[in-house]
Amino acid sequence: MKKLLSVLICLILVLSLAACGQSAEGEATDTAASDEFQSSIMFCGSTSLYPIISSLASSFTDEYEKWSDYDASFPEANVSIYVAPGGSGVGASAAIDKTADFGMIARTIKDEEKEALGEGYQEFVVARDALTVSVNASNPICKVKDDLDKETIKKIFAGEIETWNQIDSSLPAEKINVYIRDLSGGAYEVFQKAIMGEAEITSSATQSASMTELATNVANDPWGIGYVGFGAFTKANTDKTVLAAMKVDGVEANEETIISGDYVVQRPVMFVTGDEISESEQAFIDYIFSKKGYDVIVENGYIPAFSA
Question: Could you tell me if 258 and 275 lie in one domain?
Fold first, then answer.
């Protein structure tokens, strides 16, 4: 239901913009120019990629009010770049259904999704991310343990291990509160594949609408545990007093282990399309993969997938 609602929101936004014939600033666009040149670009999907693309869309439109400001050969049409969050599943669907120009995805794309996007399928990997198994930094487990094996993690998230003293007898018999992304998020699928396998996550787990919300939920619960994205973890934990990340099978989540693949719970952060790239889209893609884009990715706690 959440996935359907998010797709409908993306569709309504696109249709509303088309019906109004307005730019991001509310000014009428040049209809003649629009017939020949794509002045509006729409991204929809992953809440992990959303803050990066949204920030870059804002800075791009601040710098270039009209497309002719970017390139004199482009028409004097207002630059309009829209970004809507909704989850990776929504992003894939929006690209397939063409309710958005690009679908934002924070996981590996599925074979059936790639097939549905057709022979024109293109993916643009912006960053690397991982899912940290995070607890509140004040949790006493941090003093006795910094590593959990995958089997223990699976049992915790499946609800088979219900209290902290079942992990280590020196810990209090407090109930473990599990936090996860909502089921439309790419993180849910990544964690399911890397850790859970055929096991289901406990129905008592609290779902979060975004990684930022998930990180906040764990940070506010001394007995909480959740799979917080590396980007969200890094951004929320600048002074290292809010969250603590457990090693997984002895491997710490850091830039080196994520890039090498040694840390197993990881994912690409990207956007996809099945259509030919227009001149305006290429201009913004070049901006995303510029030094400016690199800096914004780092500011959001992610590992850029390209050199500055």
Answer: no
